Amino acid sequence: MSGTERDLVQALRAELAGIDPTRQCDREAEREGLDLGDRWRDAALARLAVRLARRPGDATAPGSAAASGDAAALGAVLATPSGPFDWANRPEHCRMAWLRGRFLARGSLSLANGRTHLELVVPPDEASRVSGWLRDAGIASGWRVRRGRGVVTLKSAENVQLLLRRMGAGASLLEIETRQVARTLRGDLNRVINAESANLVRTVRASGRQLDAIAALDEDGRLAREPAAVKAVASARRETPEATLGELAERLSMHRSAVQRALDRIERLALA
Length: 272
Hints:
65% of the residues lie in helices and 8% in strands. It is an alpha+beta fold.
């Protein structure tokens, strides 16, 4: 990824990490999704887990553990959940909070070359479960085991943006979407310009051949013996060498196919 794309991803992660759930069940679900295990030494994630562990009005218990640097107390705050997340019996907001925690602790997002790719690296036995949960939520995903770890993958930009939006991303996601739309529009514009350029080149080359053929027939007198329609097309081509077949047809009030047949006849006669 470019530096700008990395900055966007970092801004997105910072925005998600800065969400402070108001529901206690959401705080617990997100902390369960973090499931840091031996990654509690990641200071940013550890601070997030400690903040999520605080209950409204509680500013001492978990905070004091973090402030004192007591690894044992902090480890208790970040204790590994006893079992799989109870997706089936949790409301939507708890599910998205859990996924937000999983993404912050185990996820990666790539925006390289205009492609959007999100991965969650989880224990092997969890990959199929998480992929199924995402499908239940209307978000298509795939999974596989890679080097002994489960990898849940979202490759569609629409699916990735839907997941990030439902997890709470706002301004940073809007910036990503804006840049992707701009990239798409630039790509479409370039394709149109390239197609028009190719058409112009073909028109110029064909016009050159036709003008040479008209000059040859006019020089030996054969053009004068052609039907009026052919002579009219030849005259119009001389006057407007840059015109397309459609423009010539409109000028002469003829069908485009009739103009094409007349020009083909002129070229064929010149080669005879």
